[in-house]
Automatic annotation (TrEMBL):
Cellular component GO terms held in the UniProt record: membrane
Keywords associated with the record: Membrane, Transmembrane, Transmembrane helix
Protein origin, superkingdom: Eukaryota
Broad class of the protein's primary localization: membrane
Transmembrane segments: 104-121, 133-153, 217-236, 242-260, 281-302, 322-338, 383-402
Annotated membrane topology: Multi-pass membrane protein
Protein name as it appears in the record: Sugar-phosphate:phosphate translocator, DMT family
rRNA processing among keywords: no
Domain Sugar phosphate transporter: 102-396
Species this chain originates from: Galdieria sulphuraria
Length: 407
């Protein structure tokens, strides 16, 4: 038996070392290695030995202290130290997971809440003061006065962007400006619910533009999943009691504008080097500043001469000047906040959760607007809206499925 053992031990020491599932260096506190660097070259799947043989090897290996601590660590049963580490780390992992879930839930709650406040306050403001170009500009300007002090007070790292990068961002900012003003015009012309139903066509426009401009083609099922969106919007448009071509065309223009913004962003990001401190929130802040300068002269030309008389007319009834000012500031602040929180919310979840959350956001806004403004809605309009919104979710899931399949 001793001869067999020597052969076995010699063979094991020459070619293998009995190691545990733990790190080799975690065992050093129980033994002293004579040549610990040499041990890195040793490895052995000693599971082929039964339990009795292993215990026999362990007993004999006590003569070799540089290897005993490895031989005495079981592969099948965890050590006391590993159990203590696992038990100690599990509460901290649970706490971290709980904190993350709470943070994500807070993002989604604020995203929905800010979006609802913006849509409701914006609609009330436009009903009392029907100057959408001026309202849209004030909303952008309020965002500038919100974010610039954060940079000056070092509460947020300010972006450092060279002049060349600003030139690259100008097309993105122009598309962002058109998308914002188009949305405001649509919200002022038709019901909030109808605007958001038409804006559900944005994925359809995005797919077409990606195919034409970016030469990005999706599988056929992705295109087929858009049919319910198109059909639902058509049904909702035909049966919409507040339908106007201005509201419909403005909402469609916003779809094309935001799609162009996304495409220009992809092209710009591919051409440029990385920005310093250019987080998604800072990128939106820079776009807001550029859009403010772009929209100002257009708003002054189109509505500047009529602003004073419109203000007098708006405040001659039940609405006061303070209410109008409050409405402008509220809609502008919550417009910026909901967009900023959306970046954090969508950046912290899975794409499927992103799609579901974005779809449910429109549902919540539509239902809330119907409850607040009590707009009449026909059964056919409700069915068409439901089909369109459900189609957006179907498209998102289908697109994600095939994108993962390609990978």
């Amino acid at each position: 038996m001793d001869m067999d053992f020597r052969k076995t031990l010699k063979h094991s020491l020459n070619h293998f070392v009995f190691i545990s599932s733990h790190s080799i260096w975690k065992s050093t506190n129980e033994c002293v290695f004579k040549d610990k660097y040499a041990l890195r070259r040793w490895s052995c799947p000693m599971r082929k030995f039964d339990w009795i043989t292993r215990q026999y090897l362990v007993a004999k290996a006590r003569r070799l202290p540089q290897f005993y601590c490895l031989a005495n660590t079981s592969l099948d049963e965890p050590s006391k130290e590993s159990i203590k580490v696992t038990e100690a780390s599990q509460p901290s992992q649970n706490t971290a997971s709980w904190k993350r879930q709470l943070k994500v839930a807070s993002y989604f709650f604020l995203w929905y809440a800010f979006n609802i406040v913006y849509n409701i306050s914006n609609k009330k403001l436009l009903n009392a003061y029907p100057f959408p170009w001026t309202v849209a500009w004030v909303q952008l300007a309020v965002g500038v006065f919100y974010v610039v002090p954060l940079w000056l007070l070092h509460l947020r790292k300010a972006p450092h962007i060279p002049l060349e990068d600003i030139k690259r961002l100008l097309p993105v900012a122009a598309a962002h400006t058109i998308g914002h003003i188009s949305t405001v015009v649509s919200l002022g012309a038709v019901a909030i619910s109808f605007t958001h139903v038409v804006k559900a066509l944005e994925p359809f426009v995005n797919v077409l533009a990606s195919a034409v401009i970016l030469r990005s083609v999706f599988p056929i099922p992705v295109y087929l999943s858009l049919l319910p969106v198109v059909g639902g919007v058509i049904i909702a448009s035909v049966t919409e009691l507040s339908f106007t071509w201005t509201g419909f065309m403005a909402a469609m223009l916003s779809n094309f504008a935001f799609t162009s913004r996304n495409i220009f962003s992809k092209i710009s990001m591919n051409d440029q080097t990385s920005y310093k401190h250019m987080s998604p929130a800072n990128l939106f802040a820079v776009l807001t500043i550029l859009s403010t300068f772009i929209l100002l002269p257009v708003a002054l030309i189109l509505e500047g001469p009529k602003l004073y008389q419109g203000w007098i007319l708006a405040t001659s009834g039940k609405t006061t000047s303070m209410q109008l000012i409050t409405g402008l500031l509220t809609s502008g602040l919550f417009f910026y906040l909901y967009n900023e929180v959306a970046f954090y919310a969508l950046d912290s979840v899975h794409p499927i959760t992103h799609s579901v959350g974005n779809t449910m956001k429109r549902v919540v806004i539509i239902i809330t607007s119907l409850l607040v403004f009590k707009n009449p809605i026909t059964p056919a309009n409700a069915i068409g809206s439901a089909i369109a919104i459900s189609g957006v979710l179907l498209y998102s899931l289908t697109k994600y499925y095939y994108s993962q399949k390609i990978k």
